Amino acid sequence: MKKLDKITPLEEDFAKWYTDVVKNGNLIKYGSTKGSVIYLPNSYGIWELIQNQFNKILKEKGVQNVYLPLLIPESLFKIEKEHLEGFNPELATVTHVGNKQLSEKLFIRPTSEVLFAELFKQSIDSYNDLPLIYNQWANVLRWEKTTNPFLRSREFLWQEGHTCHSNPLEARKFTRSMISTYAKFLKNYLAIPVVIGKKTPYEKFAGACSTYTIEAMMKDGKALQAGTSHYLAQNFSKPYQIEFKNKNNQKEFVYGTSWGITTRLIGAIIMTHGDNRGIIIPPKVAPVQVDILELFGDKSDKVKKTVNQLETLLSRKFRVRVDRSDKTPGFKASNSEIQGVPLRIEVGPRDLENDMVTLIRRDTLEKQLVKIDDIKNLIGKTLDDIHNNLYEQAQIRLNNNTIFVDNYEDFKKYIAQQKFVIAPFCCSDHAEIHIKEETGASSRCVPKEFQKPDEEKECIYCGCSSKTNRYVLFAKAY
Amino acid sequence: MKKLDKITPLEEDFAKWYTDVVKNGNLIKYGSTKGSVIYLPNSYGIWELIQNQFNKILKEKGVQNVYLPLLIPESLFKIEKEHLEGFNPELATVTHVGNKQLSEKLFIRPTSEVLFAELFKQSIDSYNDLPLIYNQWANVLRWEKTTNPFLRSREFLWQEGHTCHSNPLEARKFTRSMISTYAKFLKNYLAIPVVIGKKTPYEKFAGACSTYTIEAMMKDGKALQAGTSHYLAQNFSKPYQIEFKNKNNQKEFVYGTSWGITTRLIGAIIMTHGDNRGIIIPPKVAPVQVDILELFGDKSDKVKKTVNQLETLLSRKFRVRVDRSDKTPGFKASNSEIQGVPLRIEVGPRDLENDMVTLIRRDTLEKQLVKIDDIKNLIGKTLDDIHNNLYEQAQIRLNNNTIFVDNYEDFKKYIAQQKFVIAPFCCSDHAEIHIKEETGASSRCVPKEFQKPDEEKECIYCGCSSKTNRYVLFAKAY
């Protein structure tokens, strides 16, 4: 075990804090290709738990998992022009195998719309085959210029769902239901509150008709797009010729959706819940939920025996790890904290004289002397408390740092303070580009409750009273 | 739902039979890049169940899952020469991003030894950090010239385990323990018997010191390599400088192993258990274990009610699917059979008059009229019976088609009949290359029980009595 490094306080330098946390929490190592990252057990374990638990939710929604190829031939990709243009500068391109040049360029998938299009074309015959609801868990590549572990990596892991429907109403409804499913998942499993909304035309996905998003607030006040759901209309079914016979035996193009969450969520966990001791992992996705630390075990048979008993007892219901090493109690505690384990039990000879052990919560750092007989019942309840506390703290922060403004001066002031700013806005590309240049903020979404136009309020940027005016959430973003 | 195609009888044309089975069993579609395959729910579901169940076994062995980058820089790959030379003709190479040429070629991983080497170098300090036992589930690419779904695809999915140990004994022991773990997994979960053995020098993995394998017999008598475990010695730790401080505080290079199973196993399932109606999926990895078919449900409320009751009852314990469509009973039955669902329950008005339903096993096609009240207890037992029967049939076939020979004439005769042939052999590259040219057979392994030399037996090819002589298993292979 290498020595634990110090973590820069988050109040001092948030970016440095983040880097220190990811490097020290058994979360990542850097790979040798620039911008590539190795997921160590403590971060990959979070992703596996997200996968397992989200798969159950998907199954209840009638989703079936499939797996499509990594490589997309250029000829297939360029059938949908807006989509290709959106991704082109980020596409990693295979041109050779061994020393031989290929007859056609192959792109490493940045997303799989065009592959799914090809699959759907082969699979759909009539309305009886619809809706067709597929999902895949996969790695994708986008050659980002600046990278940051979890938040913006050239390769990332995600789930991408792709569906076909016989009519636009059903497809739109499915698009919206997925964004709600994501919001609920983040609340119930990651303890992260979000703002649900719709992207402006400028920020929507290349190739989509409309994009819904969930936006979370990080501890520095910046926004993180945590999941998206796109209504594709017939944008892919027309160029890729995905047709079905309707009940009148006439051919129609299907209506599509796609939706995804990624390993960014691990970055969201760190920056929503982390503190100056490192990451704090919400219990439901914590690879280790309970650390049992054997303190001075070499001097006491009773300590060893109790540790073994607790391990057997708790492993049945929780993800438990035991540290029996000969390291100091201080090192063991720091190691557990820096890895964000939600609960730890310290078993030492002094407490054991009274048949007690010490239970320490990672979120509040609260210590509690507990009778050994009471431990079993306490763990489940305390893990729930930790989840609820993490969520509540994040919700309070989100509420306290979201501000409504009606003029551009206030807008600039609060954006400079890294707040979430909601303002009436005309949603034009032109205004959006200028606001970004002038303030560094981007539109995050039109929150759910403001999706009806509000012509009476003047756009904070151009002063117009357009029927495209909406209350729009702006923020600096990851 | 498109029409089900006919399956060519396996006795008539085994290769055509295989293609028909994979195309019709909701298993694959072909992608648009040559040699690329789309895994549909029925095959990807098998892989997910393999993953989930094998992960539990890995966890018990102290294995931790990680995830490493897809792309390997050329400079990193070429540090170990034998390894690079072995893979070079099959390496898909990224040279461009968008329109820009990269300063260094990047290879899509064909396996991740060199990436793990880099990770281990960063992670290991002293003997306290050993053994270090990592695994990853990932996609890899090898540009095969001829391809066949599941068996030989350019992209495939696998698990690759990589470990570091402080001494060769422990590493060798771990290598062997993994090959036994694979053999046990295939027996207990896929109902596939295997021959465990060691590869000859000519057939071992590029970069390994020794390679262990499990070889299964397909229904046409050919061998399929179903899993491998490599003892890497210090072949990677020396060039990649993976050192640890031993108990005397001296630096030493670690001893490595690597081991993997792949989506080939789905091909192995098809060709071990399949019949002229399609795939038969062993119950433990069947995405659907029980199909409930509602027959003439529109005419009878009782049918619908019973189907709903059975679904609720059985879904608690088994993976259940219900076909409530208005298709014919014959179509529904064929559809269930072609997808290899181990058990189906047909619920029709005539049987229901006596409170009975019909239970049909996919392996024996045996039909049984069963009282509804007895169904619940019968399902679990029958699924076990199916597993055991599939295993037993395969074991009998393996035994009956494995032949010992002591001369090259018999050798050629039985190889031509597509048997597993065990013969004394000197294990020289030269003899092995000639045998392959002359008979089409390759050495599969030195079976476990024959790994001690047998100098008394003359090599069937060159007649020598060398101390490298072993009884070696030969066969034509996938």
TrEMBL record, chains A, B:
Taxonomic superkingdom: Bacteria
InterPro entries linked: aa-tRNA-synt_IIb, aa-tRNA-synth_II, aa-tRNA-synth_II/BPL/LPL, Anticodon-bd, Anticodon-bd_dom_sf, Pro-tRNA-ligase_IIa, Pro-tRNA-ligase_IIa_arc-type, Pro-tRNA_ligase_II_C
Gene Ontology biological process terms from the UniProt entry: prolyl-tRNA aminoacylation
Stored PROSITE patterns: AA_TRNA_LIGASE_II
E.C. numbers: 6.1.1.15
GO MF entries: ATP binding; proline-tRNA ligase activity
CDD domains for this protein: ProRS_core_arch_euk
Keywords assigned: Aminoacyl-tRNA synthetase, ATP-binding, Cytoplasm, Ligase, Nucleotide-binding, Protein biosynthesis
UniProt domain Aminoacyl-transfer RNA synthetases class-II family profile: residue ranges: 46-282
Main location as per UniProt: cytoplasm
Pfam families named in the record: HGTP_anticodon (PF03129), ProRS-C_1 (PF09180), tRNA-synt_2b (PF00587)
Function, as annotated: Catalyzes the attachment of proline to tRNA(Pro) in a two-step reaction: proline is first activated by ATP to form Pro-AMP and then transferred to the acceptor end of tRNA(Pro).
Family recorded in the similarity comment: Belongs to the class-II aminoacyl-tRNA synthetase family. ProS type 3 subfamily.
Entry domain remark: Consists of three domains: the N-terminal catalytic domain, the anticodon-binding domain and the C-terminal extension.
Protein name as annotated: Proline--tRNA ligase
Organism: Mycoplasmopsis citelli
